[in-house]
Each structure stands twice: as structure tokens, then as C-alpha cells.
Write a structure and sequence with these properties.
Heat Shock Protein 90, 3-stranded antiparallel sheet, alpha+beta, 14% strand, single chain, 416 residues, elongated
């Protein structure tokens, strides 16, 4: 075999090895890209659902302002779309979720579009680069084969004697190519290690972001249902004291002192939130005492006909988290009945059966229309969110002029 034929054979062998390596690398990069994209979609879907639970009743559901609010929270573009939308530009991912109201009515589909993480975009760039290199390698392979056939035909099968200087030059070229290949392999291994480390850091950051979002939502609910309600109660007491200042100064002084005590308690609660602690008041009191404390706090100068019936077995069956959440729902319901409904009679019952724990809150206030979206505020939103968070169901029955009835049901499977 001539020197030229040997060189051609070696060239073909090296090019084939490069093609195989490029194909394997391309396949691996494609799998990594698909995995990263699926993880990004799963994370963004979880953020979307959490943000929807928080903003679902603040505005009209699935309106432009509602979608914009969710998009700002999760850093995505959200729009009403067909079941199979297409991303607006490369490097972005889009997926859909059904737009369903609390009443079970489907409005259509919501498309959530967001930028891929930088590590996923880097894998796409690498994949395209390997594709270009693969095309170049195949082109060179074709050129080498064509050149070999052409030289073989021209020489007519005669053995050609390549000068030693040419052979030496070719060997040096192959040696340099081998060194380059080794260096590229080392660089590729380092890049793969760096990519894995970046992926782990990115995953950790996503987990921390989700935890921060959930903590932000929980803190907002707790502040609204705890500190803000206490401040509302202080404001109502001050309004009731104003007429008493001239008529009954002693009673007015006692009421103002209770306002001062309530403000000091609110300040202590805020300090506990700042230091990362939750208010201890609900954990220190039993269920009955906590409800009675709510009523006394929210209406210190107005007599309230309170019917409180608590099954101690039901109270004992509640976990600490469930006890806190259900007391916060009761607090919000009592506050709404007194502040908005102007009720003077409230019935609260806690009972249990073999399959569930139930809480009933009924008042004789003005009532409201639950279908009126303009009346939805953070209070009702928080009540729904707290019930969903502990696997319970919440039902609100009310009509204008007929009072309000609220029922919370916790399945027995969720009590543990």
C-alpha cells in the first residue's frame, strides 16, 4: 500500500472517530437540554399555581390585570391562548394551563411563556456548535474519500514513493492533531464538570426562590389575619370612645387603656415577625379561649350574643398547624361579621365525626353577595388559601340582609 493510501486510510479512520464522538456528544447535549427544559417548566408551573392561589380572588379572575399580576410575581408573560401555543422567539419556553374558576367553569387555556435559564440556553448553543462541527467532519470525510479515489485512479495502481520529508511533515501534523484532540477532551471534561456544578446551583436557587415566594404569601396572610385585625379592633374602640370622653371619662379612660394594651401587643407581634417568630397567642390559648379573646378584642364596648359550642375531642384532634389555621379563619370571619356585617349575634361550633372535623361560623349581620367580585378582599382570599393549604374545604353562604354562614371541613385523612 502506498504512503498516500495509508494517509487516506488514517484520515478516514480519524474522521469517522470524530463523527461518532460528535454524534454521541450531540445526543447527550440534546438529552440534557430536554431535561433542563422540563425542570424549568415544572418549577415555573409550581410558581404559577402558588401565585394563582394568592391572587386568584384579588381581581376578576383571568382578566388582563390578573394575568399581569401573576406574571410579575413569577417573571413570565401570561396570556389567554390556544391549547398548543408557540414560543415568540428562540430561547423561550411556553406551556399551557387550564383556566378554571373556583366554581369549576373553564374559561379556556392560559399560556405561560418565560426565558430558559442560562444553563439551558448554553446547552442549545453547544448542541448547535456540535451540529456545525459534525457537518464539517462529514464534508471533510467526503473530500478525503473523493481525493483518494481520484489519486488512486490517476496513479493507475502504481506504488508511489513519498519523499521522507513529506512523510515526516505528515507525521508531525498527525502528532499535533493527537495533542489537540487530547486537549479538547480534557477541556470538554472540565466543561461538563462545570456545567453539572452550575446545574446544581441553579436547582438550589430555584428551590430557595419557591420557598421565599411561599414564605412571602404566608407572611402576608398572617399579618392580615393577625396584626391588621388587631389594629382594626383598636380603631373601632377609639370610634366608640369618642362620645364617652365628655359623658363618662372613667369608662373612656378604661377603653383607651385597652387600646394601648392592644397596640403594645400588635407591636410585640410585629417584632416577633421581624425576628422570624410566629405569634404565640394562639398556641398558648385553647380553642374556646382563643375565640372568646377574638370577640372581646374586636368588640370591647358592644355586647355580642356569642353561642360557642366546642367539642373538646375535635379540638384535640387538630394538629398545631391546623389549629392555628382554623383559628385564623374564625378570626377573619368574626372580624368581617362585626366590622362589615354589623352583626350582634354569632354562633360558632366545632365538632368531629369518624371521617371529618367541622367548623361552623354563622352571624345575623347584613350579609353580602359572594358572587360580587368587587367585595373580594385579602380576608376572603386568605380564608380560601388557609383551607386549601391544610386540605380542607371552605363553603361561604350569604345573602344581602340574611347574614353569613361559613363551614370549614377537614377530612380525617388530613388530621394526622
Amino acid at each position: 500500500m502506498s504512503h498516500l493510501a495509508r494517509l487516506l486510510v488514517l484520515s478516514v479512520v480519524f474522521l469517522l472517530l470524530f463523527v461518532v464522538t460528535a454524534l454521541l456528544a450531540q445526543t447527550w447535549l440534546q438529552r440534557q437540554h430536554i431535561r433542563l427544559q422540563n425542570e424549568a417548566i415544572a418549577t415555573k408551573r409550581a410558581q404559577f399555581l402558588a401565585a394563582y392561589r394568592f391572587t386568584g380572588t384579588n381581581t376578576e379572575q383571568w382578566s388582563a390585570s390578573h394575568l399581569e399580576s401573576i406574571g410579575q410575581i413569577i417573571d413570565a408573560h401570561i396570556r389567554i391562548s390556544r391549547p398548543a401555543p408557540v414560543a415568540s422567539k428562540p430561547g423561550r419556553v411556553v406551556f399551557t394551563e387550564e383556566a378554571i374558576s373556583k366554581d369549576g367553569i373553564r374559561f379556556g387555556y392560559v399560556a405561560i411563556e418565560f426565558d430558559l435559564p442560562e444553563i439551558a440556553q448554553l446547552s442549545v448553543i453547544h448542541g448547535r456548535t456540535w451540529g456545525v462541527l459534525l457537518f464539517i467532519a462529514i464534508s471533510l470525510l467526503v473530500v478525503f474519500i473523493a481525493a483518494g479515489l481520484w489519486f488512486t485512479r490517476r496513479l493507475g495502481g502504481r506504488d508511489s514513493h513519498t519523499p521522507w520529508s513529506t512523510v515526516k511533515s505528515d507525521m508531525s501534523s498527525w502528532l499535533q492533531l493527537a495533542k489537540t484532540s487530547v486537549a479538547q477532551g480534557t477541556a470538554l471534561a472540565q466543561e461538563r464538570d462545570n456545567r453539572e456544578r452550575i446545574e446544581k446551583d441553579l436547582t438550589l436557587n430555584k428551590i430557595l426562590q419557591n420557598q421565599a415566594l411561599e414564605e412571602k404569601i404566608r407572611l402576608g396572610r398572617d399579618l392580615h389575619d393577625g396584626v391588621i385585625q388587631s389594629l382594626y379592633a383598636v380603631g373601632m374602640t377609639i370610634e366608640a370612645v369618642r362620645p364617652l370622653i365628655g359623658k363618662n371619662p372613667e369608662k373612656a379612660d378604661l377603653s383607651l387603656k385597652s387600646c394601648l394594651d392592644a397596640l403594645n401587643q400588635a407591636i410585640r407581634d410585629v417584632r416577633q415577625y421581624i425576628t422570624g417568630l410566629s405569634p404565640e397567642k394562639l398556641r398558648q390559648l385553647g380553642f374556646s379561649d382563643a375565640v372568646q379573646s377574638f370577640v372581646n378584642e374586636l368588640s370591647p364596648n358592644s355586647p355580642i350574643d356569642l353561642e360557642l359550642v366546642v367539642d373538646e375531642d375535635a379540638a384535640a384532634a387538630l394538629s398545631p398547624t391546623q389549629n392555628t389555621e382554623i383559628l385564623q379563619i374564625a378570626h377573619e370571619a368574626i372580624s368581617n361579621a362585626l366590622r362589615h356585617g354589623q352583626a350582634d349575634a354569632i354562633t360558632i361550633r366545632l365538632h368531629c365525626s369518624d371521617s371529618e372535623i367541622g367548623l361552623l361560623i354563622r352571624d345575623n349581620g347584613h350579609g353580602f353577595d359572594p358572587e360580587n367580585r368587587d367585595l373580594d378582599g385579602h380576608g376572603i382570599t386568605n380564608m380560601w388559601a388557609r383551607a386549601n393549604g391544610m386540605g380542607a374545604t371552605l363553603r361561604i353562604d350569604s345573602q344581602s340582609g340574611s347574614g353569613t354562614r361559613i363551614v370549614v371541613t377537614i377530612p380525617a385523612t388530613e388530621k394526622q
